[in-house]
Amino acid sequence: MSPSSPYAHQAARVADIKICGLRRPAEMELCQALKVRWVGLVFHPASPRFLTPGEARCLYEATSPAQADEPERIGLFVKPTLRVIEQVLEHLPLDGLQLYTSLENAQAIRRHFQLPVWLAQGIADKAHLPSGSSADQIDGYVIEARATAQDTRPGGLGRSFDWALTQDWHSPRPWMLAGGLTPENVQTALQLSGARAVDVSSGVEESPGRKSLARMEKFVRNVRAKSCTSTGS
């Protein structure tokens, strides 16, 4: 199984954590200290968490040297061209890509860059949940609330959906739960959704694009407390 798979720790029933939209070295350093599984770097200009390739490089260089258990860096892109992704990779290495695009484009991007790809999927009912063969050449799904016509971007909206929709879902690929998660609701979200990985962004912010270090710590603590409770039940 790919090291970037959201199910890599499933046997221990410990939910993996991704904190997305980092912009400051202190945020990256805390993710390293907390040993979260992934960090997300946003390369979509409409997002308040947007980084230019140069800014992402500075963030990368400002953090501690590579360690065996450092978080994997995931680049978030919306309907990207190959050149847009190439420009980022020219500045810093990425361990995976989170894409808002079609399944066909996601597969083509994965083949081109030979990097793990997670496809973001907005849902409002069970009909929107991905289905199909495990032969789909992507590595996982990020499941979140469906964007509306009024939204200026497809994700990072701080909006949740009915988490029970995923409870008995048989996903064709590993998946993680995103959208509207906070330190206060993540334990309920894990219980209702059956997720084994979670992705948080605005729910640990003190203002758009600026993370609260205290809320990041609380989120991680609550996820792990819930995971330990589930393991012992």
Word description of this protein:
The protein has 233 residues and is of the alpha/beta class. It has helices at 25-34, 53-62, 82-89, 103-113, 186-193, 213-232; strands at 16-20, 38-42, 72-78, 96-100, 117-123, 140-145, 175-178, 197-200, 205-207, 210-211. It has an eight-stranded parallel β-barrel with strand order 1-2-3-4-5-6-7-8. A two-stranded antiparallel sheet has the order 9-10. It is globular. Mean pLDDT is 88; it is low at 7-12.
How many H/I helical runs? Answer: 6
* Structural Rg: 16 Å
Helix residue percentage: 25-40%
The proportion of residues in beta strands is 15-25%
Structural class: alpha/beta
Oligomer: single chain
Number of strands: 10
Q: Give the strand order of the largest sheet, numbering strands 1, 2, ... along the chain.
A: 1-2-3-4-5-6-7-8
Topology pattern, helix = H, strand = E: EHEHEHEHEEEHEEEH
Query: N- to C-terminal separation?
Result: 27 Å
Largest beta-sheet details: 8 strands, parallel, barrel
**Uncertain segments:** 7-12
Question: Whole-number average pLDDT?
Answer: 88
Molecular shape? globular
Keywords:
233 residues; alpha/beta; eight-stranded parallel β-barrel; 29% helix
